[in-house]
Structure formats: C-alpha cells, structure tokens
Amino acid sequence: MRGHSNHFNSNIYVLMAFLLLLAQFYMWNKASRRKYILLAIAGCWLWISDHLILNDIKNNNSIFRFAVSFIFLYLCIEQINKLIIYESKALLKNPIFLICTGLVIHFSFKAFIETFNFYEWAFETRLAIRLNIVMATINIVFYVLTSIAFLCIRARPTYFYPY
Question: Does any domain span residue 37?
Fold first, then answer.
C-alpha cells in the first residue's frame, strides 16, 4: 500500500506451498519416496534458477509457477487414476478424489494464467481483470471441494478401556 511490492513474500510462499503440497502427495503414495525427493530437488533447483539466477526474487517470475502447475496436474491425474482403478467405494465421498479434482481445476487455470504472466501480455487491461475474476471463482470452487472433502473424512473409532 505504500508503493512496495510483495513479490518477495509471494515467491517464498510459492516455494513453501510447493514443498508442502508435494509432501501431501507423498503421504498419499508412500511407495514412491524416491520420486518425491527428486521432484522436491528439481523444484528447488528450478525455483533457485528462476528467482535468483534468471530473474530477481523481488519480481513476478512465472517459470517456476508454470512448471509447478504441470507437476501438480500430473500428480493429481495420477492419483485420480489410482483411485478410479483401485477404490471400490464411491469416489464422490473420497476426500483424496475431491481434493485432487479441485487441484486439477485450479492448476489447469493457473498454468493458463502463468503463460500470460510469462510473456507479459497486457496484464494491466480488462483481460487481466477478467482472468483474475475467473481465478477467484475457481479458488472458491476448490475451497468448497476441499471443505466437502474434510467433511467426508471418517473419524477413527474411539476405544475406551475400563480400568
């Protein structure tokens, strides 16, 4: 509000969000630890390249965000495919399915927006306003799906042992 940019904070946040979301996918798929370690190393290397070598950390950089969107699209689609093949329960009550569906919607549009950011195409116009309104709407859909997913998580039974 005083003429200072929050790009520095935003760029740090994007790296932390990437690592936390990657950790969540690892928790869902503990069988492939090596894959997630390699993705984390590759993501950190790409973040360093984008924000410290190629560009300035205090600017809006899109290479990392664009690549991360596709990484998470791949992971979400892979997770949804596993659920479709191996789950016998109703998918619409499966929290992982709901969260991954919301993430597919979110990261698909996020990758689309980052192409405009990457090429710096007229982002001070009506197009930018409309894209941000659509992204806000997609975020609302994602948050609703995530909330429904939390409601679908079954509580563990509580056992009381008389002493």
Answer: yes
